[in-house]
Design a protein that fits this description.
The protein is mostly helical. It has two helices and two strands. A two-stranded antiparallel ribbon has the order 1-2. The longest helix has 8 residues, at 11-18. The chain is globular. It starts with 10 loop residues before the first helix and ends in a 22-residue tail after the last helix.
């Protein structure tokens, strides 16, 4: 989906316009192939990436690594 597409009833609007909580986390890893971090090296679950789940408490299979704001 193109960045100019706006869908109000789906996650595309959130991610395209506002970005992900993960972008501001110290554990986020820049990877051109997929969104990953130290908690999820194989890929951040969509529910966390899109903000449906705020990752400030442990979540399934995150090895107790949670969101921590980068400075």
């Amino acid at each position: 989906m193109a960045s100019e597409d706006i869908i109000f009833d789906d996650n595309v609007f959130f991610e395209t316009i506002l970005g992900s909580q993960c972008d501001n986390c110290i554990f986020y890893l820049q990877n051109p192939k997929h969104n990953c971090c130290k908690a999820y090296p194989q890929g951040i679950p969509p529910e966390i990436w899109t903000g449906k789940v705020i990752h400030n408490t442990p979540y399934k299979q995150d090895n107790d690594i949670v969101y921590k704001k980068s400075v």
